[in-house]
Each structure stands twice: as C-alpha cells, then as structure tokens.
Write a structure and sequence with these properties.
Mean pLDDT: 85
Low-confidence stretches: none
CATH superfamily of one domain: f41 fragment of flagellin, N-terminal domain
Number of strands: 6
Strand order of the largest sheet: 1-2
Order of helices and strands: HHHEEEEEEHHHHHH
CATH topology of one domain: f41 fragment of flagellin, N-terminal domain
Number of helices: 9
CATH architecture of one domain: Up-down Bundle
CATH class of one domain: Mainly Alpha
Length: 305
C-alpha cells in the first residue's frame, strides 16, 4: 500500500478522534461515578448488573411483604394476648364461683364481671388493623363475629361469619418461602358449634353464676381450660411465624448487601484510577496534537478549514 500525505493526515485525525472519545468517557465516569456508561462498554458486565438490579428489586418487594406480615401477626398477637388475660380472669371467677361457700349475691356480682369479659372478648375478636379484620380470614371487610342479644342487651349467642373466617393469608417473604400472616378465627376461639367456643363458654359461665348454679359453674372448668390452652397454642403459633419472618428479614438484608456489593463492583468506577487515566489521556492527546501539526502540511490544513 502506498503511503500518501492524505493517508497520513487521515490516520492522524482518526487518532485524535479516538483520544477525544476516550477523554469524553473518562470525564463521564468521573461525573457519574459509573464505570459502565453504556451496554457496549462491557456487555457481559451490563447483563450481570441488570440481573443484580432485578434481584435487588425482588428483595425490596419481599422485605415489604415480610414487614407487612410481621405487622399483621404482631397485631394478632396483641389480640391473642388480650384474650389470654381475659380467659385467665374468667377461670379465676369460675374457680371461685364453684366454691360452695359463696352466696348467691357474690355469684351474681361475678356474673356481672363475666358479662363484661364477654363483651370484651367479642370486641377483641372483631379487632381490625389497617382496615382489615384480623380474625376474619379472607373476609377482611366484615366483622368475623356476630352476636345475638336479649331484651336487656346481654349477649346470648355468638356465631362466626357464615362465609368463613379461616382463609389463610399466605405471604411470600423470599424465594420459595411463604408464611401465613393471619390466624383463622376458629383457631383462636374455636368453632361456634364447639362446646369450648369461648364466647359461648362465657355466656354459660355468666348464666350459671347468675343462677347461683355451683354445679353448673364447676362443670365448665374443664372446657375453660381447653379454651385457654387453644389460646396459648395460638400465641405459640404466632411466635413461631414471627421468628421465621425475623430470620427471613436478616437473610434478605444479607442478600441485599451482597447484591449491592456485586453490582457496585461492576458498575462503580474507581475514581482515583479514572482520574489518573484521564490525566494520561489528556497528555497523550496534547502530544498527538503536536505530532499531527507537524505531520500535516499547511496546504492540507488550509483545505481542512
């Protein structure tokens, strides 16, 4: 190939243009702190960074869901704790009411307290949080427990929502990991056809005390113990699920930090190194300008203008 002045001039200009492009990329890296300015800079690295970004987005969503499940379970635990305290007091009254030395007036006073416990139990069963009833299963917009009252306003019966109160609200808290964020109403208070159904038990206890029926009160002690054990088991279930969520949140934080570090190693520029490279590129560009000025004849320069 014959080397001409035109060829030399074009090669010199191409080299200058390449130097300018390199300088421009270094300036962009310094300005943005990013090593990859466009996918073509490192196709494999860009693909890996895209996957890591998708993973970080998924981790953020899993964390949001885990925290929501945690919030619901904590609220449900508060309800269960209130019911356990209430149940404990009801048992104390039942044991006292079964004592043969009490008078009818004393049992009547106890009946009044049990009636208040019954009202409290219904209120707790119909607790809502964040616009959803906690013990309603899928039926989050309808109070799970309905009551029947007599002419005096006292509760005589309670029934669950006929559409059901045991629907499981399952929440994904990580890849392949799901936790139930609620407890079914019957898991906490029992089925409304069960003799140990808590509201029905309190109705029977109240009425037995009001009727000064010592034997009737005594007959309820075993069922009251069963109802209390069910409530205690409910709290244990909630505690186990909350521990799972805590572990999942810790794992998500670990995964997030690892993904962020991996993505940073691909995307983030070493600013010190880039600054050195920029200085070198600018020095090379100045040298190339001087060399080009000597290589290109003035007539050609005039033509290029």
């Amino acid at each position: 190939m014959r080397v001409t002045q035109t060829l030399l001039s074009q090669q010199a200009l191409n080299a200058l243009q390449s130097n300018l492009i390199a300088i421009g990329k270094s300036h962009a890296r310094l300005a943005t702190g990013r090593q990859l300015q466009e996918p073509s800079d490192d196709p494999a690295g860009h693909a890996a960074a895209t996957r890591l970004t998708a993973r970080l987005t998924a981790i953020k969503q899993f964390r949001t869901q885990a925290e929501w499940a945690q919030e619901l379970l904590n609220a449900t635990d508060t309800v269960a704790d209130g019911l356990v305290s209430l149940m404990s007091r009801a048992q104390e009254l039942a044991v006292s009411g079964a004592n043969g030395t009490l008078s009818a007036a004393e049992r009547a006073a106890m009946a009044g307290e049990v009636d208040q416990l019954l009202e409290e139990a219904v209120e707790l069963a119909n607790t809502s949080h964040g616009g959803r009833y906690l013990l309603g299963g899928f039926e989050v917009a309808t109070p799970p427990l309905s009551v029947t009252r007599d002419a005096a306003g006292q509760i005589t019966a309670a029934t669950w929502n006929p559409r059901g109160v045991d629907g499981a609200v399952d929440v994904d808290i990580d890849e392949g990991s799901t936790v139930q964020a609620n407890l079914g109403g019957t898991q906490v208070l029992g089925d409304d056809t069960d003799p140990t159904f808590l509201p029905a038990l309190l109705v029977r206890l109240r009425d037995a005390l009001a009727a000064d029926d010592q034997a009737g009160v005594n007959a309820l002690l075993a069922d009251l113990g069963t109802a209390e054990s069910r409530l205690t088991a409910s709290r244990s279930t909630i505690g186990a699920r909350l521990r799972r969520i805590d572990r999942a949140l810790d794992d998500l934080d670990t995964a997030r930090l690892a993904a962020e570090d991996a993505r940073s190693s691909i995307l983030d520029a070493d600013l010190g190194r880039v600054a050195v490279e920029l200085s070198q590129q600018e020095a090379l560009y100045q040298a190339a300008l001087r060399a080009t000025a000597g290589a290109i004849q003035p007539s050609l320069l005039e033509f290029l203008r």
